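Reviewer 2 asked us to include a model.

Predict the structure of this chain.
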Amino acid sequence: MSELVQIHSIGYNLTDVKVEFKKDTALDISGVSIQGKTGEILNIPRWSAEVLEYEKFVEIQDIDMLVELKQAVEKEKMLGQFDLSTLQVQQQADPHFYIKMKSYMKGLPEKDYDKVQSLLNTLVRTRQTKIIRLADTSKLTAEISQKLSIEEQKFYNNLHDNSSNFSKTVVGNKT
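Predicted model (structure tokens):
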């Protein structure tokens, strides 16, 4: 599963993110040219934005994933034991929800990180329980798939396959 997340994380880091320049900057890194004046707001690749932010050249203007996480936890609580909400970022289904959460959490101070981690664990445990129940009874449908992150889709399919194999082993196949 980590290969899947790693591949999608690379893709996420190649997407553009909005930054505000804190210093006049002119760089050419691996064929990527970045130029900005103090106060200017531009879109640049996330991987370079993170390096420039670490060096205090820019400030990343990103989605507040804490708000998205709180909304996801509340939605899961409101739904029944067998109903999954759609993981969303800015009110759009997002199969990269957890990748974005991990990226967001990297920049948090330890005190805030622990609080966000606790809230994320609540979401994961709740969704995990629902996914186990659903995967035990049916294959992954398009309707369920659109509600899941890429990690959850892999988890769902593994559970379903293992559950089916277990049942076949114990009960046998009717052929």
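The longest strand covers residues 16-21. Residues 65-171 form a domain with the Methane Monooxygenase Hydroxylase; Chain G, domain 1 fold (CATH 1.20.58.1030). We have added this to the supplementary material.
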